[in-house]
Each structure stands twice: as C-alpha cells, then as structure tokens.
Amino acid sequence: MINYKQFHYFWATAKAGSIVKASKQLHLTPQTISGQIAILEASLGVSLFRKVGRGIELTETGELALTYADDIFQTGNALEEMLRAGSKERSRLFRVGISDAVPKSIAYHLLAPAMSLAEPIKIICREGKLESLLGELAIHRLDLVLSDRPMPSEFDIKGRSNALMECGLSFFAANSFQASNLASFPHCLNNAPLLVPGEDSAVRKRLMLWLNTLRIQPQIVGEFDDSALMRAFGQAGVGIFCAPSIITDEVISQHNVTKIGETNEVVERFYAISVERRANHPAVVAINTAPSKIS
C-alpha cells in the first residue's frame, strides 16, 4: 500500500518544481523530503523524478502519478474544507468532463441546473477528448460527461446517455465577406471558404452529407476541434463558420459577424453521459431532469 505521507511529499515537490521549494512550503529539510521520495520510489519499484542538470523533472511514470495525486489531494482538501465548515457552508463536489466538441457556452447552459440546487455544489470541469473522459467516468473520477454524441457502443461501461439539447445549425461570416457574396443561402456556400468542426465532432459528418446532397462544394480552409478558435478565425474573415442555432445571438454579439443562413436539416445534439454509481448525485439528477431545449 502507498505511504500517503511520502506520496504527499512527491506531489508537493512536483507542484513546486524542486525539492528546495517544496521543503520551504512543508517546513521540512530538503534531505527529509528527498529521502522520503527515495523510499517511496524504492517501495514502488519506479522512478518518479530524474536529474536534469542541477534540477529534477518528472519521469513519464511521475507525470502519470501526478494526475492521480492531483485528484487525491484536491479531494482530500475539499473533504477537509467540508468537515471544518458549518453545515450551511458545506459544498458537494461535482466533477464534470466536457468533450472539446461541446461549445463552452452550451456547456454552461446545460450545467446551470446543477448550480441552482439548494445543496451547495463545487463544480470541477475538465475538458478533453470523449474517449479519455469516458475512461475517467468509468473509474468514477468524473460524475458526468457532456458530449455531442451518446456513449459509443464499443465502450463496456454500464451507463446512460441522456439527450439534453437539440438544435439546428447556423452559418456566420465576417461583414466584409457578406458584402461580396450575393447568392442566396445555402448556395452562397458553393466555392466559398468554409471553416468546419474537426473530425471528432459528431456534426461534421452530418454537415458534409448535407452539403453533398445539395451538390454544394465549399473550399474547406480550416478544421477545428475547438469551436471558439474556429469562431475567432471566422471573425477575422478567413471563412464562413457554423455554430448551434440556439447561440446565434451570442455568436453575433461576441464576434461582430453576420448570420448568413440556417438549416434544421443538420442537427446538433448534446448528451449527458453518466454511470449507475453516480446517477443519484443531485447535480446529475438536476441536469438530466431539466426541461429539454430544442431550437
């Protein structure tokens, strides 16, 4: 079994960047910390740090161990805060994974029901690829995952995918582009520079199929996993871009662009994915039972 005091010394050193800095923070001698980390490495049969010049850096194993240490000690700190606080001040941890295909403003609206509960909630959001987030969900390091697709069938996880929102797709362009393209939508997309979501986005295939059906062939000038980055390029006039219709007003006001058209033939859907063990978490229940939003 891991000696958690030694593991804490490892964590503190990794976060501080050196044994000397960690020793000052922990009010211990550098010799004590280095000795305890050496004992931890010997007991586990691994090297967590390696020497680089006069300093140290994490090994690949050390970097992996640090991700677990972050969760362990952040949870421990939250537990201590909860136990020390009065009953009215206690907050419950709610750990959410957000697929990078989900626009951040959409994520906020979907998570909002959890923030208005009578029981205080402390939310921890992590963003990443869906496959990685589902792995975290499977070992209960996350309570919920927001995604633009349901849980893939190849994942052997006992869980549920609850559809939270469905809406059409709108297209936007910088005002300079709008002035020079007079064709009606969607034919103005033909031969036009187009920015599209990355291949991991569920809406990407539906968008391309719709364009092919209409025999519209835009010039794909950029692919983006991050929707916010795609909008920034669109705002700069690099090309036309799309976004869920439900956030049209927000896109126009934030990026000073013009909506050139919309379609309900290409639908974006957003899901809350949870596992049985976390299904009764009050924040998960609140999100899954909130009125559905369809635009």
Automatic annotation (TrEMBL):
Nucleotide-binding as UniProt keyword: no
Record key words, sorted: Activator, DNA-binding, Transcription, Transcription regulation
Keyword Nucleotide-binding in record: no
InterPro entries documented for this protein: LysR_HTH_N, LysR_subst-bd, WH-like_DNA-bd_sf, WH_DNA-bd_sf
UniProt xrefs under Pfam families: HTH_1, LysR_substrate
CDD domains linked: PBP2_NhaR
Alphabetized GO MF terms: DNA binding; DNA-binding transcription factor activity
Gene3D superfamilies reported for this sequence: 3.40.190.290, Winged helix-like DNA-binding domain superfamily/Winged helix DNA-binding domain
Taxonomic superkingdom: Bacteria
Annotated GO biological process: regulation of DNA-templated transcription initiation
Family recorded in the similarity comment: Belongs to the LysR transcriptional regulatory family.
Name of this protein: Transcriptional regulator, LysR family
